[in-house]
Amino acid sequence: MDLKERYNAAPKRYDAGDKIFRRCGRSGVLLPKISLGFWKNFGDAAPYERSREIARYAFDHGVVHFDLANNYGPPYGTAEETFGRLMDDDFRPYRDELFISTKAGYDMWPGPYGNWGSRKYLISSLDQSLRRMRLDYVDLFYSHRFDPNTPLEETLQALVDVVRQGKALYVGISRWPLEALAFAEKYLRERDVPMLIYQDRVNLLDRAPIEEGKLDFCRAHGIGFISFSPLAQGLLTDRYLNGISEGSRMALNASLKQSALTDELLEKLRELNRQAAERGQTLAESALAWVLEQPGVTSALVGVSGVEQLAVNLKVMARVS
Ligand SMILES: NC(=O)c1ccc[n+]([C@@H]2O[C@H](COP(=O)([O-])OP(=O)(O)OC[C@H]3O[C@@H](n4cnc5c(N)ncnc54)[C@H](OP(=O)(O)O)[C@@H]3O)[C@@H](O)[C@H]2O)c1
User: By percentage, how much of the chain surpasses pLDDT 90?
Assistant: First the structure.
């Protein structure tokens, strides 16, 4: 890719209209059925040209929602820095067409104020994120995880206040237990900052948020639901059907451990792959379609290490209503 070339977004990027977007709960926001996550493949460890190509391809196909967090990289913070560079290089003219989220909740900096759910951490972390991302505001700010030791009111009031301060337009939470999710829904609604969206992992191998009633709760209360790792970090693709391929996420043995690929799991993946093939689909396509067909799911939040993968994943948007 010629990095000196000015980016002009594809004029036809919204032509597929309804095939791309779904309403996020009971809100004014539409989100693409497939959203792009920056957890891996956008930090300093990834080549900038490749990250840039992925982001451009996504936006050119109507994928206007990019999901980040303070600790995405690796190293921590560098996915947001890459995003900031992308803003300056390519996306500044399109800021109002983009829906950008970030989060705080996991360990980010040393000491007692760089982790969990205090007001002190969440607000200073968002300020740092905005600087790294070269943005005045984010569209969506999340509490990244439930903190059993901080009063929920403190965490939630920090979310209310970042909206009042104009640093975020909407708020959400990720990976909170059902009872706490219900508390958050009420707290935020009563302060006129309704929860836009809840983020958790739902995929063919992990249905816990469905079984625990979280998806139903969101649906009943007009909260959108976005599923992260809908491909189980690549397990639900052809990546591992014949072992651990070179350059794959599992080859790094970090967030996706090689020990996870047991004979039993491999057999299950091969069976799912056979069933997908009978329907004329790849395993990745059928896994994403399954997530998007769960009532109440707004968007499937994928990660990709190349545009070819993204091209496959985006095809699913036209196949589910
Ligand atoms: N809220 C939270 O706590 C939380 C936690 C985790 C993630 N997230 C969010 O969710 C996003 C997505 O998570 P994820 O990256 O785990 O999602 P994922 O889509 O389940 O897995 C992405 C990986 O799957 C492989 N892949 C994707 N499409 C493929 C295709 N068509 N064919 C073959 N392989 C394919 C690639 O692996 P290779 O790299 O091996 O090519 C890619 O890196 C993150 O970026 C982040 O924004 C949130």
Answer: 97
Determine the distance separating the centroid of ligand 1 and the alpha carbon of 253, expressed in angstroms. 15
pLDDT for 186 beyond 90: yes
Closest residue CA from atom 48 of ligand 1: 228
Same domain, 259 and 159: no
Note down the domain range covering 256: 246-281
To 5 degrees, how large is the angle CA 69–CA 71–CA 77?
A: 95
- Output the domain CATH number for residue 167: 3.20.20.100
Q: Are 133 and 172 in contact (CB under 8 A)?
A: no
3-state secondary structure of 153: helix
**Which of 38, 198, 309, 314 has most ligand 1 atoms within 8 Å of CB, for mutation?**
309
> Is residue 94 over pLDDT 80?
yes
Residue type (1 letter), 118: S
27 part of a folded domain: yes
Nearest CA to ligand 1 atom 37: 234
Distance CA 318, CA 249 (A): 28
Residue 16: exposure state from Cβ atoms within 10 A (0-12, 13-18, ≥19):
middle
Give the residue, by CA position, lying nearest to ligand 1 atom 15: 303
Asked if residue 274 is part of any domain, the answer here is: yes
Note the pLDDT tens digit of each residue in 226-265.
999 999 999 999 999 999 989 999 999 999 999 999 999 9
**The dihedral sign for the CA sequence 312, 315, 316, 317:** positive
